């Protein structure tokens, strides 16, 4: 249990150290972006990279190493059989037309080239032109142990270098010469040396990483002897730094920068391809359920470089959508909003109207007789009702059996028919009837009678 705890603590410390190294590297990238360099390449990004994606670019270095090793083995460790122009042409052809390979060169031990104590031809391209020269004239790579791309390989033991037998038949005129056995010495890709990414100040003024592989000959005892290196400089200018969250579905050599973005919690990191070896190559877009504060902005995302340069990333945050909205572009509601200030007056007017209608209906029902009495003189209405009751207590209504059924008037209701001539006023009287036999109710019979002429004292008639 204690061992497990100790290993966990060590892992956490290692993770913290890795994160700190990444942050320091990003700060270095930032310094290079903001300040012109003064020459040299001593500062590097202190990170461990996955070089798998770059292995396709180091094949020229492997080829150059095998070619020069083969020449040395054929000439007892001497390169004098090759002219400088031949070597320069070889290196020039590697760089020409290559965008990713910035430069290619070799660096040899003293005595390999009899004319020079040190020989390090180097070809590179810049602004569409290929340049080549011997950097040994201005750069002491042999005695400077800090030149890791050279001395790291020189210090190794190469006794177990891969040996391959080669059988060669040369030609002389039209005659094939006797077959000759030759031993070739080679190494694997993983036996080469990768530098950490660095900014080449004063040279290409670009970010690059260098790969070198050893050049051999055989000593007197037949053991492999280190005679120099062949290498290529891989340009990182066009390789993006992806600071967004890790993608487990695929990997990249620069995945060490993953997860170092500074997007706020309400936003998500979106990687921008083609930005090159620069920090801030991303956008902070709003997460689901949030919207961009500037609704009129053409690009609704925060610029990653601005977020990186900001001392406080808090202002670069999105605003939450209204309740019930999974996605939105502004603060418009997605659910019905209960607005009491607008609804209360309408509800109050409606309620008062309903109460008023109810009160008016109750008053009308309770005082309906008084309303009719108010329209006519009481004695006229009484006389009309009495006359109707006397003469028409019973009437006969035909039924479906064509029989006369005696009916009895059980109640009347008198209504006024308003006419322009007061003498033409009529009373409409609804008479409810009951059958004398079965006491069942039948349809009401409607009669009418004229307004009684009280002055002439005439009888009512139907």
TrEMBL record:
Q: Where are the transmembrane segments?
A: 344-367
Keyword annotations of the record: Cell membrane, G-protein coupled receptor, Glycoprotein, Membrane, Receptor, Signal, Transducer, Transmembrane, Transmembrane helix
Q: Tell me where in this chain the GPR158/179 extracellular domain is found.
A: 194-291
- Any one Pfam family here would be MCP-like_PDC_1
Which molecular function terms from Gene Ontology are attached?
A: G protein-coupled receptor activity
- Keyword Membrane (UniProt): yes
Where in or outside the cell is it found?
Answer: Cell membrane
Q: How does it sit in the membrane?
A: Multi-pass membrane protein
Query: Domain of life here?
Result: Eukaryota
Q: Name one GO cellular component term.
A: plasma membrane
Question: Where does this protein chiefly localize?
Answer: membrane
Q: Family per UniProt?
A: Belongs to the G-protein coupled receptor 3 family.
What this protein is called in its record is: GPR158
Q: Which organism is it from?
A: Mytilus edulis
């Amino acid at each position: 249990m204690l061992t497990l705890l100790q290993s966990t603590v060590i892992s956490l410390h290692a993770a913290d150290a890795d994160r700190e190294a990444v942050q320091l590297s990003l700060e270095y990238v930032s310094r290079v972006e903001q300040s012109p360099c003064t020459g040299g390449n001593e500062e590097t990004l202190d990170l461990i990279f996955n070089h798998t994606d770059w292995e396709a670019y180091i094949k020229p270095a492997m080829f150059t190493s095998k070619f020069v090793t083969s020449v040395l083995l054929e000439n007892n460790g001497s390169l004098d059989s090759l002219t400088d122009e031949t070597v320069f042409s070889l290196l020039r052809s590697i760089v020409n037309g290559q965008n990713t390979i910035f430069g290619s060169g070799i660096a040899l031990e003293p005595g390999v080239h009899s004319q020079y104590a040190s020989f390090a031809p180097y070809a590179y391209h810049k602004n569409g032109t290929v340049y080549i020269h011997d950097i040994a004239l201005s750069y002491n790579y042999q005695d400077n142990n800090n030149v890791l791309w050279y001395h790291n390989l020189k210090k190794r033991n190469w006794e177990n270098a891969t040996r391959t037998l080669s059988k060669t038949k040369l030609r002389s005129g039209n005659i094939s010469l006797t077959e000759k056995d030759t031993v070739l010495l080679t190494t694997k890709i993983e036996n080469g040396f990768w530098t950490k990414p660095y900014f080449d100040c004063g040279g290409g003024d670009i970010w690059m990483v260098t790969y070198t592989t050893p050049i051999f000959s055989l000593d007197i005892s037949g053991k492999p002897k280190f005679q120099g290196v062949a290498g290529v400089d891989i340009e990182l200018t066009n390789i993006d730094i992806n600071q967004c969250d890790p993608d487990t579905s695929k990997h990249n050599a620069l995945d060490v920068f993953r997860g170092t973005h500074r997007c706020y919690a309400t936003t998500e990191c979106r990687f921008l391809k083609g930005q090159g070896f620069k920090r801030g190559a991303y956008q902070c877009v709003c997460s689901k359920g949030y919207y961009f504060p500037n609704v009129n902005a053409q690009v609704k995302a925060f610029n990653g470089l601005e977020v990186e340069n900001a001392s406080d990333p808090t202002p670069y945050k999105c605003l939450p959508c209204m309740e019930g909205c999974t996605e939105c572009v502004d603060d418009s509601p997605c659910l019905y909003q209960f607005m009491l200030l607008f609804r209360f007056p309408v509800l109050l007017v409606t309620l008062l109207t309903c109460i008023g209608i109810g009160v008016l209906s109750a008053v009308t029902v309770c005082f309906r007789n008084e309303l009719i009495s108010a329209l006519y003189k009481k004695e006229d209405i009484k006389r009309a009702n009495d006359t109707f009751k006397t003469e028409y207590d019973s009437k006969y209504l035909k039924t479906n059996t064509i029989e006369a059924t005696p009916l009895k008037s059980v109640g009347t209701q008198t209504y006024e028919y308003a006419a322009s001539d007061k003498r033409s006023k009529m009373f409409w009287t609804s008479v409810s009837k009951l059958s004398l036999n079965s006491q069942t109710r039948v349809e009401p019979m409607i009669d009418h009678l004229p307004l009684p002429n009280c002055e002439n004292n005439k009888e009512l008639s139907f």
